[in-house]
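Loading example: each entry is read as four labelled lines plus one structure line.
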Amino acid sequence: MYKKICIYLSMGNSNLYKGSLTTIILKLLEEHDKMYGYEITQKVKELTQGELKITEGALYPSLHKLEADGLLDVEVAKVDNRLRKYYKLTEQGTKETVSKLAELENYIKTMQNLVNPKLILE
Amino acid sequence: MYKKICIYLSMGNSNLYKGSLTTIILKLLEEHDKMYGYEITQKVKELTQGELKITEGALYPSLHKLEADGLLDVEVAKVDNRLRKYYKLTEQGTKETVSKLAELENYIKTMQNLVNPKLILE
DNA sequence: ATTAATACATAAAATTCTTATGTATAAGAA
DNA sequence: TTCTTATACATAAGAATTTTATGTATTAAT
């Protein structure tokens, strides 16, 4: 038998992260070429020093959607008798990544402008 | 009779804005003391040069929730025979604003760190 | 031997927003 | 003067995304 007790901290205790999961996945894949789901959760935890924890319930459906949309290709591997699904960017996925990153930069500028107008002079 | 044809552009054509509406409302009220709903939509449009358009369907329920949560007080006024509901921060709302702004700063730092790790050295 | 870590998955519920619609007054254009 | 746009509120169905909870299975560590 199995037993599972979970503690769900997820997305930084702030709902600002809502809507950024896709951007995060695409950017990580742009930098690391080929990653599997669990690896993404660990990498995000590491890069954010524990601030951001991607939950499985958000990650896997998101990966499936990106694949269905043609932004990711999947390749199944078996390592130590355990399943791994490696994802990588398609050509279209690479384009979408550029676009998503531009959106993020734009979001940040807009929000800083809204929230702290004195510091933005350009 | 009336007729209404709407063009819904809303939240910057990017779902990164999901989750930031509350922060935006609170910050505007911190700066402008007292505002009504329609005024908020216009102010946001103006401050973001049209990039961000708050829809009524998002704004009004959000204002009602903030009021129900004790973060905003409301005061009804009649100007030119037209109804206006002025909202202002409660004491608790002022505290929450500080907290929400800190969350935003933190979100921006975390995302920049994730997305462009080379530029962050601190 | 039991727990923690690795590795996938899905599904109900919550949250937030979009889209659509409803109501009403005032101002401006045709 | 009539039609449209702007001002000002509201709610509700549906979409999208995430949280919370659960399910299955293998390997490593205690």
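The beta strands of chain A are 35-36, 72-79, 82-89.
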